[in-house]
Fold this protein.
Amino acid sequence: MLLFAAVLWNLTRTLGTSPGIWVDTLIENLFVEDCLLHSKCTAVGAGATIGIFHSAGYFHWRSLLEWVGWRADGTYHVLLVINALGVVLVALTARRIGGRTAGAIAAVLMSVCVGVPTQLDVISDVVPMPFLGAVFTLLALSSITHPSLAMTATLGLVCGVTANCYATGLLLGVSTVVVGLMQPRGRWRHALVGAIASAASSFAISPFTWIVDARIVLTRTVSNANAMSFNPAYRIPLVVMTGVAIALWIAASFLGAHRRPLNVMAAIVLPMFLPLILGSAVGRLDPQPKYLAHVLGAACVCLAVPSADALRWLWQRIPAQAAWRMFDASAPYAGALIIAAQLTSTFNPVRDTDMPPLQYADVAAAERYLANERGWNWTRAARNLRAPDEVVRRAAIRWVPDWPTTGEDDNAERATLLKISSLRVPRPLPPSVKEVLTTNGNSTLVGTSCSWLDWRHFRACTKDSEAGPETCVDSGLPADRDGHSDYAAVLAGLPGLNVRHSILTLHFPLQPKASCPESWFHMPRLPGVCEGRIVSVDGQDATIEAEGRWARLKSEGTPPHEISMQWEIGGPKCQVEYRGFPPFFVEGDATTAAFLATIIERQSDAR
Amino acid sequence: MMRRTALLLLLCLAACHAKPPPQPAPRHLRRINGQIGGTFKQLSDAGRFATVVPGDWTTDHFSAGGERLELGFKDSNHQDHIIELLIDEPRTGQADGRGRIFFYRFVRGSEGEPNAKALLAAAGLIDQATPPEALFSVEVEAEPSTPIVVAPPIVEVGDRSPMEAKTISKTTALAIAVGESLIVLLAILLGVLAPLRQRRGESQ
């Protein structure tokens, strides 16, 4: 219990109590929504980067959580709890093999592993895998130390559940058979029962997934070698850790220590580790740490048990041998203390402290402020809420359920959502900027402002090169209630999602008004944001400053009537994921735009 | 005189009760799907326009909005040659040509038969390449509407085959999820309690 509490404390302090905003989570939400609202629950799952389908079982489970009322934060809390439980199960496994010290070391190692590398900062199909792997690991050990066919069959069933959570879990079928063959008596019977249970449960939970995948695998090559990032395996800490664990297993085998239990751990790790290394070596596989999520528990046990043995051997060289018993007895408490004190979190930092990622709680807080204090409704938010990452806007309108549906649609007010370290926030805040949430030393800010742009109407022009023909189409932001419309389609006139290179120019009609005497526009330089520039105001560049980064327009005299901005999608200054949506820029009255630009510049300078 | 008066009266009565000339049926406003820009790009990339316009013409712009498209070329003297493609007949004047879907109207640079022919031929390429589903009818709206975005029926990029798009009912899915949870719970209990069960067995 103490260890469980310590791990849970560590996770909540390190990662927070609200899930991060991530596009895959929003896509999962669509599957859940289709299931619960339209009774159309996917029988096949989602597409994986290597080209197959998987995770149907996980989507059903997410639908169940949503159905009982555990939505964004509730689901995330469940994931934190089961991962904390997974650490405890791994510690128990190691303790049964190598004693308390081994259990403590395994717990510390496992708490290091679960976190950002296993996507525990968001909601995704990878997140339950360390827990399911830990369940499998403990049961696998128990099936050797307390053999029974029921235990072996259950092991196969766990394999089926894991395989339908994330496709890599299917390799536990190999582990099930190998563990069955390790039985002291009736090993072929155990192997057969394990194989049948694994195959039957994998198929029964989601038969169409495996039928479709069989067709895919038999008709074309599957790989993720074209993934956006490609890291050599030896640069990934979890891969290195697992490699060390295998090395220790080999060493322990030679020494004859805990041979059978550690062989069980190796039987869990190797079916995933070997293909990962080999696939990476031949350039067919991008070795992502998440692929090892379900074997981390076994790897930690493989590391912990020999390490504890080594410690014990060293300690026994000390004259005061009774001290070892004291040390061994106190090891679990020491482990819990290390975990609770977040000493392990230094290996598992939040991705970027200068630009803290937004979480569900941030967009929910923004919704509460905009809806309750500024009278915004859903349609207004769909068109007028901005954030550097377009996915944040989608999360705000698709994930947060409480937006009012009635009310005035005022398309002349803009709201910009930013999150920044509280230390970098200029104080005092201007009246138009509200700090809607502070968590873990970060401030979530919403800046509202009048605007001269109406995002329902603009003109989108694209061309492949500076000299090429230009295609222009009237466009605008929709307010489409169907969340599916965010994907695989772009706004009218914008480059397609798979575009390699395109010059996008947006021409915005300006609507100056007396109530909004100035409108400032700023093109930010921010990681993750496509760099653009203001190319003209009324066909001229006289009022454009800082080489296209600023335009400060006034309504007095002859106010301008059009502003044009340009981005080179896929160009050297726009190596970010393009989502078929206009890139981010700051717009608003003088005070708000200046404040937001200052914050963004501070974030940019800090890097 | 009486006869003339009666004739005048009859003519007046006939004029008063004459039915007004038939008005055109109320038109449905049809908006062009902005994705038609892709049609132009495909034709341009394939060099199709070059086969119907003079050799010194280059494609300059293609605009789509509301009920009209505009296709523009520039010649070697930097003169514009522009033609409109309209969904409906022009409200004023006559169309200069007609295709399968669109009415054509010259905007600029159509003087002389070769220029006019080239513009009509280029417009014809767009007309032939435009699928019927790129245009659709909607009721006339009181407020300006936003351009339509193609909303695919699936979540991921690319099309799913019927098998890949297969779904099951909510009840079945939730039952599967409950079953999965029970399996995991059973596994945890078996794993945690295995030593206790063995000790109980030994003591018995």
